[in-house]
Amino acid sequence: MTVWENHSLSQLTTFKVGGLARYVVVCESKEDVSEAITHAATHALPLTVLGGGSNVLARDDNYEGVVLLMRIPGITYKEEGEVVTVTVGAGVEWEMLVTECVKKGYWGIENLAGIPGTVGAAPVQNIGAYGAELQSIFHSAEVMNAQTGEMATYDAAACEFGYRDSVFKRNRALVICSVTLRLSKIATPRLGYGDLAELVRSGAAMDTPEHIATNVRLVRAKKFPDLALHGTAGSFFKNPIITQELFSTLTQKYGAMPSFPAANNGIKIPLAFILDKVLGLRGYRDAYVYLFGNQPLVLVVDEGATARDIDAFANAIAKKVFDATSISIEREVQTL
Ligand code: NAP
User: Fold this and answer.
1) CA 181 to chain centre
2) Which member of 164, 172, 182, 190 is catalytic?
3) Stretch 31-51: mean pLDDT, rounded?
4) Measured between alpha carbons, how far is 307 from 40 in angstroms, rounded to an integer?
5) 321: closest CA among 261, 270, 287?
6) Distance (Å, whole) CA 64 – CA 85
7) pLDDT over 70 for what percent of the chain?
8) Residue 239: which of 335, 165, 160 has the closest Cα?
């Protein structure tokens, strides 16, 4: 286990802002995770887990606690007939896992190409894109409870998956150490979502998982900023799910808007549509912070921005949305 003292969180998060963390413990094994938990308990400090730092807003103030930097490596594959069981260390880059799996011709993970972050972070918000969600390929996760020090296996039911949601968001003491997925050798393409259906119509090759992943990456590259070049955490807010009543009120007021059926008779609407077409906020900027021109759901910052700037900007956007639509939007990005 490696311990860094007073380490800048701006170097560990893709927003590239944040103060110093009192301790950062780099964990490359379950034993390291256990030691990091002990380290926090010994120093009577809070513990927080960080993977790729791509969905986190670190505050400007120093963090008087222990950051467990998840870096457990390793991918193992087990083929049984057409089913492939893949067990992955929580510190593996999600995108690296996707690249390996699609190259091997395994189906199920291809629509989730191009998502930043680590494998351990994927169940936390049940990552999803283009009609695929982690939960549909999830088998189990090895989880250490930082409060009890116990290791347990969580199946899909125990994870309580929802739309960009899971038990891991509600109980921050749960540290995911490895994830097991179930992929398939049988072709199961999901090409119904607009952007992918459009590619199919234009004749793009979409016959293998590798082709689909490549095309998903191309679509994403046009919409989302490059994390290596911009300070950003991707989509900052969740797409809201609203009631039928509110949806009819909004369409009466603002005209037709895209909508998709959601759980519990709700209606999911792309927040980007509201930000762009209802509020005219595409590219909207306040000092160092702005909404990305190609996808206004994404908040981007210039060098020099602080977490306070981002927080204030996001609150102002949420207020504008609420004032115009009565929708209380939720953040996808978590504050550390
Ligand atoms: P998009 O494709 O423009 O879609 C915007 C919203 O409309 C999303 O809520 C999406 O639902 C919904 N939607 C679009 N087509 C749909 C269909 N045929 N059936 C049901 N719902 C539909 O979104 P985007 O911002 O460019 O992002 C592309 C994809 O990446 C989306 O699927 C988005 O959710 C996903 N994404 C995921 C994360 C994450 O997991 N943290 C972050 C950024 C983007 P869904 O959200 O259910 O797909």
Assistant:
1) 17
2) 164
3) 96
4) 25
5) 270
6) 40
7) 100
8) 165
Q: Nearest-5° angle of CA 200, CA 206, CA 208?
A: 165
pTM: 0.93
Structure tokens at 265: 């008779």
pLDDT in tens, 269-302: 999 999 999 999 999 999 999 999 999 999 999 9
Q: Who lines ligand 1 at CB under 6 A? A: 125, 127-130, 164, 192-195, 223, 234-235, 239, 260, 268, 270, 272, 295, 297, 332
Q: Output the residue whose Cα is nearest ligand 1's atom 26.
A: 223
Sign of CA dihedral 226, 230, 233, 238: negative
Task: Please choose from 133, 247, 257, 260 the residue to mutate so as to test ligand 1's pocket, defined by most ligand atoms within 8 A of CB.
Answer: 260
Report long-range pairs for 311-314 (Cβ below 8 Å, ≥24 apart): 311/57, 311/335, 313/286, 313/289, 314/236, 314/237
Nearest CA to ligand 1 atom 7: 270
- Nearest one of 296, 328, 326, 290 to 310, comparing CA atoms: 290
- Which pLDDT band holds residue 263 (cuts at 50, 70, 90)? confident
In tens, the pLDDT along 307-326 reads 999 999 999 999 999 999 99
pLDDT score, position 219: 93
